[in-house]
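Appendix B, Record 12. Input sequence as logged:
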Amino acid sequence: MWPTSQRPNRSPGRPECRAVRLLDPLAVRQCRVQTLGRLPQRLSALVLVLHGGRSRGHGRAHALRLAYLRMLPFALELRRTGQTGDGAGLGVAMVRYRYRGWNAPDNDALRDAESALAQAEQVHPDTPVVLLGHSMGARAALAAAGHPQVVAVCALAPWLDESDQMGQLAGRGVLIAHGDRDRMTDAGASYEYALRATRVTNRICRFEVPGDGHAMLRRAPDWRRLVRRFVLGETGITPLDPEITDAMRRPAPAGLRSTPAAR
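Logged structural output:
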């Protein structure tokens, strides 16, 4: 994804987050940013995909864990549908953390998201970035949204509580989606977060996915369709989606408790 000569220097005393094209078996304690396929000749925008994890844990976050694999269908669909046919389009990259856990107060997943954004700024300084995350990754995506290149955040089943800030969302498009049968993360907490976030951005919506849980399996096509419509619209690949735009325009709580249309 990034030329070797342009990788950031390692910070003393902490594991490094660096980008690689292929799995490096020696880089056990380095987060990886791996592109899906070749980047377009003209990069319209870059999507960084942030997988889930757990509250605490310093075990390896490898590519065979379900938390990582769960996000691959989203990444692949965006890679497939985000090309415009004239050499331009979306670049999509998977971020894999150093550790499986958030590990407060270190907030390791957030540190890795910020490191991936710093690399994007170094190598693609004028490219808009969308952050797409699930669960712990959604928390990291929302928290890292203040980076100047971030234009939008898509947070799926985010793990949130009253301590999470929202000032960094100002000026960004934000979509939050949560299954109404989620037993791993609190849909009520994501609603309260979205409600508070309306103070800093008027481009926020939240969708409740009926009948689905944390793994996003029962209505998987609807989750992917919602993500695709949001990301392609926010990056200008397609016009803004009317259903999402309508949800953003509706006052709370209606615009924060929308239900995606099944198609």
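The first helix runs from residue 66 to 69.
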